[in-house]
Amino acid sequence: MEVTRANFRDLLPEITDVVNNSSFLCIDGEFTGLNSGEDVTAFDTPEQYYHKLCDGAMSFLFFQFGLAAFQYDAKEDKYSHKAYNFYLFPRPYNRNARDCRFLCQSSCVDFLASQGFDFNKVFREGIPYLSIPDEQDVRFQLEQKRKRIDSPDLIRVPDDLKSVIENACQQVQQFLETDKKEQEIILERTNGFIRRLVCQEIKQRFSPDEVTIEIRNYVLVVRHIQGAEERLKEQENKREKEEADIEDAVGFTHIIRLLSKCNKLIIGHNLLLDLLHIVRQFYMPLPDDYSEFKLMLHNLFPKLLDTKFMCSAPPFKDILTTTVLSNLLKSLKEPPFNIPVVGYEEGKGYKSIDLKYHEAGFDAYMTGLVYLTLGNFLKKTRLFNKSENCSITDSPLLKPYINRLHLMRVQDTHICLAGPDPTPSREHVFYITFPKEWKYNDINQLFTPYGSIFISWINDTSAWVSLQHREQTINVKNTLIGNLKHSNTTIEPYETAMSRFGDEFSSMKQQNSAPSDNKLYSSPATTMARKRQKDNVHNYTNVGNKRAKRESFGKQRTSLSGIIVDSIPEEVEESPSTPLSKSKKSCTRACVEELQKDKVSSQKKKIEFEENDSWE
Questions:
Q1: Distances (CA, A) of 146 to 89, 157, 566, 580
Q2: Domains of the chain: which residue ranges?
Q3: Across-strand partners of 66?
Q4: For residues 404 and 342, what is the distance between their CA atoms, to the nearest angstrom?
Q5: Architecture of the domain spanning 2-130+251-412
Q6: Which helix (H) or strand (E) holds 172?
Q7: What is the pLDDT of residues 517-527, one digit of tens each?
């Protein structure tokens, strides 16, 4: 079912009920691009991989979100589902709110267009959303506006404008003296400075129990009210409307917060990129520290499953010939697998024959089918209590796959959110630099005496080389490294290169100097140094958003803008790879309020010259 700005508010209660009553949830996202930075290599560590994605993939827009909720019927031992396809667009809440800027990757846009994607629906009907700092900033602006109304700063009326102000006040006086007091009067259209002066004088001369003033389309509208009771009622209605407007601006973020609080198993295919965009666009900026990111993500979504990782792990990696989602269903239709029949409600779900690839809702549905098929395979081939019907989601057979995220192109490690990441042996891997003219055959010839090799290119003059026959590692170290005939070619073991890079970049960081362009390997320090040099595509026009600090997820239970963060699970607290960040400051309302003071002060000096109704 398509969900746009027009029907989002009406569907929100239904979606909330569907999510809370589901057995598990599947998600998928579509973006305006995938990567604009440095490519990952086959031997990146999870931390390096994370920083490369932060550097090169976060400038794109998350503009379609698919959600498929699967529910298990124990009596029938069958599943049914409802799927929702959300169109998203970060429309600014007001002129002072963050004006989001994003990149588009032409190849991705062209591909989606070829699949029939409706970009007009994104821009015209996309659901808005706000991150935590954005919402805090909007609420802070509203609070400041209310304070200015309650205790306005009086402005001296210039002599050349006194007649204009006096004329407006006389119009209001004549309006109040008429018998048609239920009507309203629209004053002459003026600029923002005169509107403020008129509003100031009317509030000084007339009782708030007589008239109320509001702005409609940049003109002042004066209405007569009957006493204090009606005035209080109008103020209450106005506050309710303001709060409703903010809730509409928060928009799709309500869905993400719902997924965080529902405590359901959340499943995706190649899930890491989706999660990074979810955190950055709907919560807060991604932390620089990798361990803090893991801790944050595990607190937000404590039960995740990546079907890409599941397909690449035993026993499936030896059975499946592909892990590409669009091709998986074809493979899973063949023995020893059996795709289950999943029910759906007409208009709110999919059939496996629909083939609406790269529509986020359909991809989320297919991810659910893959998960159920692989889960049923485990139930049939592993020890499992078959005497009672039971959802695979409740089975301990899934434990090896929970909270582990697949890394594209990296085959020997992954991200483990509930403990330390795997550290595979890379003794058979070597770092090699060579002349720019060299091709694959040149490197292959160099290693020919030691058997087959795999080359992972870093750039035109460097690469990682791994040996298929690991027993040849000692021979490479003893003979090839020490007897290179090419003075412009160097070879060193993986661990030596990693250690050297770490020392070099630490020295650069201490000297506060960015690495040169001819560095051949991108460590986290390199990535972050380049990141500081690049312009931030997501330009925060609001000062509070520019300077807002990242939320620190600690041991204490915290409630912030509808997000509940429970205490750290034992497995994470004890993990040496995920230490608590003691130096991080919380991205709290107090922080944003303090940062906003300078902005409020500067705006007061020029507000009278702006076309702005924020002083109402």
A1: 29, 23, 34, 39
A2: 2-130+251-412, 147-239, 429-533
A3: 28, 85
A4: 26
A5: 2-Layer Sandwich (3.30)
A6: helix 162-177
A7: 333 334 433 43
Residue 142 pLDDT level (bands cut at 50, 70, 90): confident
Burial 391-426 (b: 16+ CB within 10 A, else e): bbbeeebbeebbbbbbbeebeebbbbbbbebeeeeb
- Please check whether residue 222 is in contact with residue 183, taking contact to mean a CB–CB distance below 8 angstroms: no
Answer yes or no: is pLDDT of 220 > 50: yes
Residue 537 near residue 101, CB atoms below 8 Å = yes
> Which residue blocks in 313-450 are alpha helix, DSSP H?
325-332, 360-381, 440-446
Residue 287 is predicted with a pLDDT of: 95
| Residues 236-259 pLDDT 10s | 888 888 888 899 999 999 999 999
Kindly state the average pLDDT of the residues 444-460.
93
CA–CA distance from 376 to each of 53, 328, 380, 391, 586 (Å)?
34, 15, 6, 10, 44
Segment 174-182 mean pLDDT = 72
Task: Return the amino acid letter for 422.
Answer: P
**What amino acid occupies position 243?**
E
Report the percent of the chain where pLDDT is more than 90.
45
Using 50, 70 and 90 to split pLDDT, how confident is the model at 180? low
Q: How far apart are the C-alpha atoms of 421 and 415, rounded to whole Å?
A: 6
pLDDT, tens digit (0-9, with 9 covering 90-100), for 307-328:
999 999 999 999 999 999 988 9
C-alpha–C-alpha distance, residues 194 and 508, integer Å: 56
- Count of other CB atoms within 10 angstroms of residue 197: 22
Q: Which fold has domain 147-239?
A: Ribosomal Protein S8; Chain: A, domain 1 (3.30.1370)
Q: What is the pTM of this model?
A: 0.75
Residue entry with tokens 């794109």: 60
Return phi, psi of residue 199, to 5°. Answer: -60, -40
Q: Which residues of 143-174 are buried (b: 16+ CB within 10 A; e: fewer)?
A: ebeeebeeeeeeeebeeeeeeebeebbebbee
Q: How much of the chain is helix, strand and coil, in % rounded to 5?
A: 45, 15, 40
Q: Which helix (H) or strand (E) holds 506?
A: helix 494-511
**Cα separation of 89 and 118, whole Å?**
13
Q: Which CATH class is domain 429-533?
A: alpha beta
Cα–Cα distance measured from residue 244 to residue 73, given in angstroms and rounded to the nearest whole number: 37
Dig out the tokens for 58 from the structure: 């976060």
DSSP string for 86-145: EEB----SSTTS-----B--HHHHHHHHHTT--HHHHHHHPBPB--HHHHHHHHHHHHHH
Q: How many CB atoms lie within 10 A of CB 588?
A: 17
Q: How far apart are CA 195 and CA 201, in angstroms?
A: 10
Question: Does residue 222 contact residue 202 with C-beta atoms inside 8 Å?
Answer: yes
Q: Which amino acid is at 97?
A: A
| pLDDT above 70 (res 385) | no
Contact 462, 433 (CB under 8 A): yes
Q: What is residue 381's predicted lDDT score, i.e. its pLDDT?
A: 83
- Residue 317 CA to residue 328 CA, distance in Å, equals 12
Q: Coil, strand, or helix at residue 608?
A: helix
